[in-house]
Amino acid sequence: MSRYIMVIDTRRCVGCHDCVVACQTENNVPAGYCRDWITETARGEFPTVQLEIRTERCNHCANPPCVYCCPTGASHIHERGGVVLVTHDKCIGCKACLAACPYDARFIHPEGYADKCTFCIHRVEKGQDPACVSVCPTRCMHFGDAEDPLSDVSRLLASRPHHTLLPEAGSKPRIYYLT
Amino acid sequence: MNALSRRRFLQISAATVVAAGTASRALGTLAAAGAPGGGRGAKGDRQVATFCDICFWKCGAIATVRDGKLWKIEGNPADPLCRGRLCPRGTGGIGAHSDPDRLRSPLIRTHERGEEKWKEVTWDEALEFIAAKMKKIAAAHGPEAMALFSHGIGGTFLKHTLKAYGSANIAAPSFAQCRGPRDVGFRLTFGEDVGSPERTDIENAQCLVLIGSHLGENMHNTQVQEFATAVGRGASLIVVDPRFSVAASKAKYYLPIKPGTDLALLLAWMHVIVAEKLYDADYVAKYGFGFEPFAASLTSFTPEWAYPETGIDPETIRATAREMARYRPATLVHPGRHVNWNGDDAQRSRALALLNALLGSWGRKGGFYSPSVMDMPDYPYPDYPKPKQPKVDNPDHKYPFAHEALTTGIRDATISGQPYPIKGWLVYATNLLHALPNEAETLRAIKQLDLLVVVDVIPSEIAGWADVVLPESTYLERHDELNVELFKEPFVALRQPVIESPHDQKPNWWIARKLAEHLGLAAYYPWKDIEDYLGYRMKEAGLDFAALKKNGIIRGPRQPLYFDEGAPAEFGTPSGKIEFYSAQLEKAGFDPVPKYVPPVAGPPGAFRLLFGRAPMHSFSRTHSNRLLSGMMEENAVWVNAGIARRLGLKSGDRVRLKNQDGVLSNRIAVKATERIRPDCVYMVHGFGHTSRGLRHAFGKGASDAQLITRYKTDPLMGGTAMNVNFVTLEPAEAV
Predict the structure, then answer these.
(1) What residues of chain A, 9 to 68, have a C-beta less than 8 Å from chain B?
(2) Which of B319, B351, B370 is where one domain is finished?
(3) In the 3-class helix/strand/coil scheme, how is A126-160 assigned residue by residue?
(4) Does residue B252 fall inside a structural domain?
(5) Which domains does chain A have, with CATH numbers?
(6) Which of A62, B119, B299, B526 has its CA at a distance of 20 to 30 angstroms from the CA of residue B469?
(7) Is B682 near chain A, with CB under 8 Å?
(8) pLDDT of B466 higher than 50
(9) Does the residue B515 lie in any domain?
(10) Where in the sequence is the domain holding B661, given as residue range(s)?
(11) Which residues from chain B sit within 8 angstroms of residue A140, using beta carbons?
């Protein structure tokens, strides 16, 4: 079994939004919506400030509340890599998953279904990286299989301190931020 | 294929070119580039290699058309500039093609200038109108009375037409409003410019010093990629900025300097490095000229002297100076790009160059490399008529070290009619009302004109004042001149159409050529069409045009980058050495070694207005691109959190900024933040559009340009320093 994860180096990231733009074009995300986004957290007082910039998206949780709460089975865990996906024509747009997601990663597409990051599974199945990873000019994003100890993502997690977002939600998020 | 080092390129002599093997790299992923529009409505994917135009970096790109529609654009892996990855502006570049606000048809003004009222006309009518006016201007005042303001590679053919017409009055804001002082400071010191793309070896730097340069927010692709590489491998980073920039957040040392005092810090750093003998003595002895008087001039500039000026404590100044020396020569003190700040900019840039000279970083790995360029002979055009008068922008060499034309000099001449009248402006792809300081002066100059023509993709503010507006095809819909630039390795890149223009837009080469025909100058365009022109240049260079069309780029063999690899250690200064002491400055009546003058203080209670870049926008040119405006819809004014509390403001509150001359800005949101000093405010440039044609961007955010009513002119080279304006925050009425 494979387990796809993303490892993002916040030291390299400059918050340029290229990942967000690339997602929009690759996936024809409708105007006014986004499947990924940038957050900045500043702490401290001038001039002693710590700033963390993160590119965020669906965490493709291993324990995904959005899947468990879906009344129709539209939200599901894909057989490949544990990616969390939505089958559009099974989705009734009830928004239960929007409420359940700790990361506010989902939105209702103008065509009526719940939408979010797919880890660009259509690209991954062709052996390509997700669009956001493939464009990043700072090369701060890494995508790969956590079950493969030789993958970039496994090596990075083994060698660098990292954190996930809202681990206390218990959803076992699969996007890791190197600090 | 031939490649030349920079110096040999400058001294070009056709007989002495080193031949080298071809090194073209095929792009496995690329399908053959079909004719644009040939695939319209066709099912499936079609890919075309081209290069980007959202900024001037000109990254190689591959656009994909799916089922006849432009789908996406990605970096060309064969391109040494982008290394397969575009920046957000490049990725969002397809939004320029689909922008519903873009210019669609040639327009001739029907009402007063500035009322933005036109009638749609045919290309023939528009060009005949322009040509008739230009002939009249030439008859009455001579052809020199026409000037061209141009930005970017797309201006190539309009420049050619204007020179054929008989005028050499051509300028770009990139000199007097941007990088000019830097290039002058480096020329005076090393005898050469920093260039664009800059010859900075960031990826190999072990210590990188950024002074007001906000890489990461300023998104010049290669530099940001190399910056991330340097940060990723733990290079020591020193950031000097009144604002805690993104780069500052990655720094080992952040120096929150008082705005306008950078030269004092540079002098104190050099004082420490000289006093503690930390400089590269062998390098200075071998390549330096006038070191002793230079060193003697630094004696009084101690860190203790600099402390009250800069606000940086002496221990931090000493520690950072030692840090730089520790990693030399792989210490890069970055020259920056937009450096028109305080009016001392050329001398400050020279001090920065001298600091690099002390560290021995020029010509060394991790410092400044020696660039090379592909040898591409020019097209053999007929000789241009010799202008009867010298260029208008810098009469009597008032600014003796200006080595490029001054936009603001042309503007001055247009207003005064001295040294001779300027009666017509062609403006290509530069929004002068946002790019030049003091909008009122630009409008005064426009009042003197018999003809104002704007060629652009979008209805910019300057287009609003034009007599004739010519809609240009976006870069995704046109050919352009080949991109041949000085860089880490020689290359030639092709821009070619990916998709047809959606309305009656035309490529600039077509516009320039047709205008020449209407002016009776058809002899200056002997080529059949643009492919004939480009093909000729490729053939003369011994390069394969078909391969270029397929792959978008052809790379040449890498040349020596550093002195120790065989790059020639030559300096184009009068002494032929690195000039620590500049006799030519002294002779012209300037300080032979830089001296510090404290910045002008603002009115009590006012904040110095600083401005900069955001990674998803270019100048004032991308705000109607729906993909990019979606990433940043409007700008905010950064205000120190403590100051905001005192003023009773919180993030998201709307204010207007009022400058020292009473100019009131558009409404703008406050960003109350710990990331800026209390004595200045900051905003991203390019917002606050007032052109009604920019429906999406109109009125969003505020324009720094509007508030820059004052500027201080650099006495060496005529650059216009813009960080000399002060604002207060005024409550904005509720919506």
Answers:
(1) 9, 11-12, 14-18, 20-22, 24-26, 31-32, 34, 42, 44-47, 49-51, 53
(2) B370
(3) CCCCCHHHHHCCCCCEEEEECCCCCCHHHHHHHHC
(4) yes
(5) 4-178 (3.30.70.20)
(6) B526
(7) no
(8) yes
(9) no
(10) 607-731
(11) 228
